[in-house]
Amino acid sequence: MSDAPTQLLINGELRDAAAGATFATFDPARGAELARVAQAGADDVDAAVTAARSAFDGAWAKTSPAKRARALNRLAQLLDEQTDALAELESRNSGKPKWQCVAEIKVAVATLELFAGTAQHLYGRSHVVNPSVVAYTLREPIGVVGAIIPWNYPLMMAAWKVAPALATGNTLILKPASATPLTAIRLGELALEAGIPPGVLNIVPGPGTEVGEAMASHPGIDKIAFTGETATGRRIAEVAAKSLKRVSLELGGKSPNIVFADADIDAAVIGSLWAIYYSAGQSCEARSRLLVQDEVYEAFASAFAEKAKALKVGDPLADDTKVGSLISRKHADKVRGLVQAGLDEGGVLLAGGDLDLEGDLDSDAFVAPTLIGGVSNESRIAQEEVFGPVVTLTRFSDEAEAVRFANGVRYGLAATVWTADGARGHRVAQRIRSGAVGINTPFIAFPGVPFGGFKESGYGREQSLEALDLYTETKAVLQGTSAKPINPFGV
After folding, report:
1. Which domain, by its residues, includes 170?
2. Which residues are catalytic?
């Protein structure tokens, strides 16, 4: 069992849910209950909104941008100092290798530091409308923000929402995923320690069908920021539209990884392994479709399959583990079902299959790194987001076909292009309908670089200066400067 905080955090106080409800959160790699967590309901959302509104109108409104920056930098420092303990908690609650959690906490730290630096630099513009009117604009916070985050990057995704929202002067109600709530509650505690006033950051774990719906429909919440799967994002947009809330959505993906015949095949294989098997493929930007040119298809498939089979699957707390568990047995079963569907459609299993893990690990929660060859771009396995360590392999003949296959899904979040032709790399990057494209690199998410999608991958950009637009309103202020009275009616 975990000794991490498990209560709601509202108005600076850890408290039980109003109805007294709790739910279990698990260590998925071992199938063991990790903790029982207070389960928020609509009444708790009301209380969090009241606290957030009071803080927005009161203490936080009186906090200068310089003090907001100091508080965010202090929060970043506290996260950095407690990286090892937080990473172990995150690893146990999510099944991810601990070393990956360490890297993600470092990203959370960098994200907080990035937006702390923007707090004092929210500039407007001035404009002389005509000789008798001067105008200027102000960037003002939207108000109370509701943030809903997924289970695949719990602490990092929390930072992606908390940092820009608080830097711009908003207050926040954060709903972590029920599968991974523990580090989010701890983040709320550390925010108080960093000097962020009570009510500015509130944490309300609970089911999306109740807590998420209550947040999206609540008249006291001015904006919803959501990261998660596309169907839920569509529902949030529908509910939020009734009160015309501001909404930003970072949703699913089915991202292509294009390997041209002139690419450095060894580099493409190694980079492509990372692009799909990091986080056990449970990543919205996972490059889960390998599109490989005919001339190098067989050589690439053979080299990739060999290295995929060699990746260590096992205990998330072990330093040499490359692929941990999935978030639950249920999700692993879904992934295995989609793999079987791909094989039933004519795909060929080139890597993957059964696992027999030692010790107290729950083998049913793990899926081996899987490669399915001979896949049509129109097949279900190539079109549907699997969200597991599964990649498909599809042939293409030329650049035009590669672009057509890359764009031939309803998503548009990320892509990678492998080629020795620099002009082709940039040309293809411009033709792919995707929010981010890496050329000869699998890495596409860094603090300071816009992250978000086209098409059904959502709208809005996070982790960059563009995110400031998601959390601010622009106000125009006009001042008459004429020495004569304004008398347009001539009365």
Report:
1. 8-250
2. 250, 284
